[in-house]
Amino acid sequence: MPPQIRILDDPETLAEAAAARCEEILRRAVATAGTAHLALAGGRTPRALYRRLARRGGIDWRRVHVWFGDERAVPFDDPRSNYRMARETLLEHVPVPPAQVHPMRARPPCLRDDAEAYAATLCALAPLSALGVPCLDLVLLGLGADGHVASLFPGTRALAERDDPVAAVDEPGIEPPRLTLTLPVLDHARHLLLLVAGEEKAAVVRRALAEAPRGEPLPVQRLAPRGTLEWFLDAAAAAGVPRE
Ligand code: 6PG
């Protein structure tokens, strides 16, 4: 299924449109299965979305399991923590506590043990494919200037991981170390929402959406979603995207 691309005027209208779409997906998942499994993105872009999502009245948070797409190996009260960002913008503001929030504990030098522990919880609680891959209802992603999604950076072992659902990212040049969901989990999501805003992302968006990828595929171009992939771009990030 080709990616769907929505271009919104600015980061605020992007956040509003993405919040409405997230609400629709989570409502449908809860109505269908009684629960919904949501994985949050980190970084700056999702902040405005999370503030709006907390205020959407149509989500029964008591039925939503909140997971994390990735997390930095910092304390949960560190300004760089994705959990802290999600707590401050979403989790402390939803009308009722979510069914369960699953922070990703990433604690060197035990990163691989932490990855295995998170994978075990994920596989115990989320629906699994016939091959045992967790199938989340909605995975939110941002896009790095180098084309990374979650913490799947170009040329890393985590990006190449095809078996484990969670990988440690502890390679030179990536500070702090991290944990990340791997491509198989992203690809098995029912819905992937990629949120990209700002002129500093225009070049990577243009390259990521180019018809004829040149050179080594970007991590985002390695996505092979079985469900839907929806790009939410603001006009600045979409500056190089051909308009229909
Ligand atoms: C992280 C994110 C990462 C992020 C991109 C974009 O932990 O940093 O998961 O993948 O989404 O780096 O970050 P911005 O939204 O801050 O541009």
From TrEMBL:
Key word Hydrolase present: yes
Q: Which InterPro entries match?
A: 6-phosphogluconolactonase_DevB (IPR005900), 6PGL (IPR039104), Glc/Gal-6P_isomerase (IPR006148), NagB/RpiA_transferase-like (IPR037171)
Q: In which pathway does it act?
A: Carbohydrate degradation; pentose phosphate pathway; D-ribulose 5-phosphate from D-glucose 6-phosphate (oxidative stage): step 2/3
Q: Which Pfam families match?
A: Glucosamine_iso
What keywords does the record list, in alphabetical order? Hydrolase
Q: What is its EC number?
A: 3.1.1.31
Q: Where is the Glucosamine/galactosamine-6-phosphate isomerase domain?
A: 10-229
Keyword Hydrolase on entry: yes
In its UniProt record, a GO molecular function of this protein is: 6-phosphogluconolactonase activity
Its transmembrane ranges are none
Q: Where is the signal peptide?
A: none
Q: Which reaction does this chain catalyze? A: 6-phospho-D-glucono-1,5-lactone + H2O = 6-phospho-D-gluconate + H(+)
Instruction: Provide the GO biological process annotations.
Output: carbohydrate metabolic process; pentose-phosphate shunt
| Superkingdom classification of source | Bacteria
Q: What class of enzyme is it?
A: hydrolase
Question: What family is this?
Answer: Belongs to the glucosamine/galactosamine-6-phosphate isomerase family. 6-phosphogluconolactonase subfamily.
Summarize the protein's role.
Answer: Hydrolysis of 6-phosphogluconolactone to 6-phosphogluconate.
Q: What is this protein called?
A: 6-phosphogluconolactonase
| Organism listed in the record | Inmirania thermothiophila
